[in-house]
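ok trying this again, last paste got cut off
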Amino acid sequence: MANAERKLTGRHVAMIFVGAFTVIIGVNIVLAVNAVASFPGLEVKNSYVASQQFNDRREEQLALGWQVRAKAQGGQLHLAITDADGAPVQVAALRATLGRATHVQEDQSPDFVFDGSTYVAPVTLAAGNWNLRMEAENADGALFSQRVVLHVVEAAQ
């Protein structure tokens, strides 16, 4: 008994068409939901107001001449703030958030202590890229803010 030749009918084409678009729309919905769920939030409440103050804050910050470096070693985060001559700076106030760039689940606020040359805080970090968003004030109240990228090669406990 010979097999009958199968024909491509309008019904088959419609099923292929509906199936393909179902997959495309399904994937788009999954990606959109994941994008919205993982969005960490806004950087500033009003970007227009922030842009109007940007140049003034930048000039004030550049006038301080501070340089910032961070490294994680032995379960501790070392934050070095130096002046234009390379001398350590002891700030009047220091606030920082350490976290990933893509989500806020691992964010932590290090409790820094000045040891005479650097600020040191105990941290637990997995390997990968981290961002330290810091704000420091000098004795005159000038604000210095910076995002310091930190690359951790092996997990620090």
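PB: full thing came through this time. DSSP finds two helices and seven strands in the chain.
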